[in-house]
Write a structure and sequence with these properties.
This protein has 2 helices and 6 strands; from the N terminus they run βαββαβββ. By secondary structure, it is α/β, with parallel strands linked by helices. It has a 4-stranded mixed sheet, with helices on one face. Strands 1-2 form a two-stranded parallel ribbon. Helix 1 packs across helix 2. The radius of gyration is 14 Å and the shape is globular. The two termini are about 25 Å apart.
């Protein structure tokens, strides 16, 4: 086993808005997969060189909550670039970039669907 986490999912209500948000802040065009047999619209986001895959999904059984699991997205080497794009994307930086000593840097943001997401970058 290379990692304990296979992938994680971020629930969204407005898929198009969330998709545009994540493409914009990471400055990448993500793959989209739709499976009407599973969800009304099942988007999947993937970057092949990341060790953990992730997705946003419009599963009506998942509820958006600020008390949901805490997610730390890999922003290694690009955390400043991502933070610069958060405000123009119309969303919030809840905690600016902060040093966590030899572990690198973290920042806390709110995405387009009001999920609270952490960003992490190693030193």
């Amino acid at each position: 086993m290379k990692t304990a986490i296979n992938w994680f999912s971020i629930p969204v209500v407005h898929f198009e808005r969330a998709y545009a948000f994540y493409c914009f802040i990471f400055d990448k065009k993500f793959e989209r997969i739709s499976d009407p047999g599973w969800y009304e619209f099942m988007p999947f986001l993937n970057i092949s060189d990341w060790k953990i895959n992730w997705c946003i999904n419009s599963d009506p059984n998942q509820k958006i909550s600020k008390n949901w699991i805490k997610i730390y997205l890999n922003a290694d080497g690009i955390i400043d670039d991502i933070l610069i794009r958060i405000i123009p994307a119309g969303w919030k930086i809840l905690m600016p970039k902060k040093s966590i000593k030899w572990y690198g840097f973290i920042a806390y943001v709110e995405d387009s669907e009001w999920n609270e997401i952490w960003l992490h970058s190693s030193n």
